[in-house]
Design brief:
With 272 residues, the chain is mainly α. It is 82% helix and 0% strand. The chain has 12 helices and no strands. Helix 1 crosses helix 3, helix 6 runs antiparallel to helix 11 and helix 7 crosses helix 8.
């Protein structure tokens, strides 16, 4: 089996990989992405195992378990790198959700001012940095000769934001049925605004226990622990090494970084 066929077979084993790459905005073919991921995992595995081998040779020697871990580490790194489109799509979705209300309201104002739909969509593409990319794709499709309805449908299918898809589908349905686009979009705006209000309230309820655990684990317990350890060391003659304090500070920093990452990731992309 040639390498190209191998990468193609691996790409086919991951469902919706093409859609995920398109949603993440990654202009790369699935086979090329799998090849790039495969090589990245191979090089990183080689580097990690080489360093581990040097350490083991100087200490206890290389056992049979070392050779078993090589494919395991490679498989874990490969699967980890294969999640890159999902992560990028999530970041893109959050950025789109943060502008969907403002962009839709801008579109409604344009349409109510008797501006044609094409020019209104072009105005959104020029006025908004994040969601404007989605509407710019529609303009690009139309400029290349694609029908407006087909262009909206194509872009909507590869948009990671469910809220933006609903806006585009509402525009498409209004075009197909001949209904007023502005009136239909007003209903979507009200619905999305209510949903974002609920999301902000849920986030507020989540934030209280997270803040409490952060104060306990990252502030109170480390502070009291270091104080108690210092006091005990003076009575029991325990010597506190500098390396221990450095590792303790690094671990505390990692814990605080983890809490900040959890808070940031759970924050809803709300802009009511």
């Amino acid at each position: 089996m040639t390498k190209s066929r191998l990468f193609k077979r691996i790409a086919q084993s991951f469902p919706n990989l093409t859609t995920k790459l398109r949603e993440a905005g990654m202009e790369i073919e699935p086979e090329a992405f799998v090849k790039k991921t495969f090589l990245s995992a191979f090089y990183l595995t080689t580097m990690i195992m080489f360093i581990a081998a040097l350490v083991l040779i100087k200490t206890r020697g290389i056992s049979a378990w070392f050779y078993v871990l090589v494919p395991v580490v490679f498989a874990l790194l490969f699967l980890y790198f294969m999640k890159l489109p999902d992560v990028k799509a999530l970041v893109k979705r959050r950025s789109l959700d943060s502008e969907v209300l403002d962009a839709t309201r801008y579109l409604i104002i344009e349409l109510e001012s008797s501006i044609p739909l094409y020019e209104s969509i072009d105005g959104v593409a020029r006025s908004f940095d994040k969601i404007g990319v989605v509407f710019y794709e529609i303009i690009t499709e139309v400029n290349t000769g694609t029908d407006m309805e087909v262009a909206i449908s194509t872009v909507a299918n590869f948009t990671p934001s469910e809220k933006v898809r609903r806006v585009l589908w509402q525009i498409l349905n209004s075009l197909q049925t001949g209904a007023n686009v502005g009136t239909a979009l007003k209903e979507i705006v009200d619905q999305i605004a209510r949903e974002q209000l609920v999301e902000s309230r849920v986030y507020g309820r989540k934030l209280n226990p997270i803040a409490m655990f952060y104060m306990m684990i990252a502030v109170i317990i480390p502070s009291l622990g270091v104080t108690m350890l210092t006091v005990l060391s003076s009575f029991v003659s325990i010597r506190i090494e500098l390396l221990f304090l450095i590792l303790f500070a690094v671990g505390l920093g990692l814990i605080q970084f983890m809490f900040l990452a959890v808070i940031k990731s759970s924050r809803p992309a709300v802009h009511i």
